[in-house]
Specification:
With 130 residues, this protein is α+β, with helices and mostly antiparallel strands. The chain has one helix and eight strands. Strands 1, 4, 5, 7 and 8 form a five-stranded mixed β-sheet that branches. A three-stranded antiparallel β-sheet has the order 2-3-6, with no helix packed on it. The protein is elongated. Keywords: Signal.
C-alpha cells in the first residue's frame, strides 16, 4: 500500500510540473515561408488588390495571424507572412494553409510584389493595374 501511495504522489508531482512548464511559455509570432502566390488579374486603380498565398505549417501549433505589407514605393511592395506559434503539445504533422492577403489600392501601372520568407528566400510576382 505504501508503494502505491509513493507512485501516486510521484505521478501527481510530474503532472504538476508538466502543467507548470506549459503555462510558462507564451504564444509568439514568427515569420513563415510561403510556397506559392496566386495573383488574379483585372484590377484597376479603384479596386482593392489582393493575392492568395499558400504554404505549409510545420506542426499543429502554428496558426495564421496576418501579412505585414510594406509599400517601399508606389510600384514596389514587400509582404511578410506572420503566424502565431502556441506552446505546449502539438500535432506533429505538416498542415497546408491558404490565405487571401489584401494589399490595398494601387496606382495604375506595373507593380512588383516581393514575398519574403523567414529564411532569406523570396517569391516575386507582378500585377498590372489599369
Amino acid at each position: 500500500m505504501k508503494i502505491v501511495s509513493l507512485i501516486m504522489a510521484a505521478l501527481l508531482g510530474l503532472g504538476s510540473a508538466a502543467m507548470a512548464s506549459q503555462e510558462q511559455g507564451a504564444a509568439k509570432d514568427v515569420q513563415i515561408g510561403i510556397s506559392g502566390v496566386y495573383v488574379p488579374g483585372g484590377f484597376d486603380s479603384a479596386s482593392d488588390v489582393y493575392v492568395v498565398v499558400n504554404g505549409i505549417f510545420q506542426n499543429g501549433c502554428y496558426k495564421w495571424k496576418n501579412a505585414e505589407i510594406d509599400h517601399k514605393d508606389t510600384y514596389y511592395h514587400s509582404v511578410k507572412s506572420i503566424a502565431t506559434v502556441s506552446p505546449g503539445m502539438c500535432l506533429m504533422v505538416l498542415i497546408p494553409f491558404q490565405k487571401e492577403v489584401r494589399l490595398g489600392r494601387f496606382a495604375p501601372g506595373k507593380h512588383t510584389l516581393h514575398f519574403e520568407n523567414g529564411d532569406g528566400t523570396y517569391i516575386e510576382k507582378s500585377v498590372m493595374i489599369e
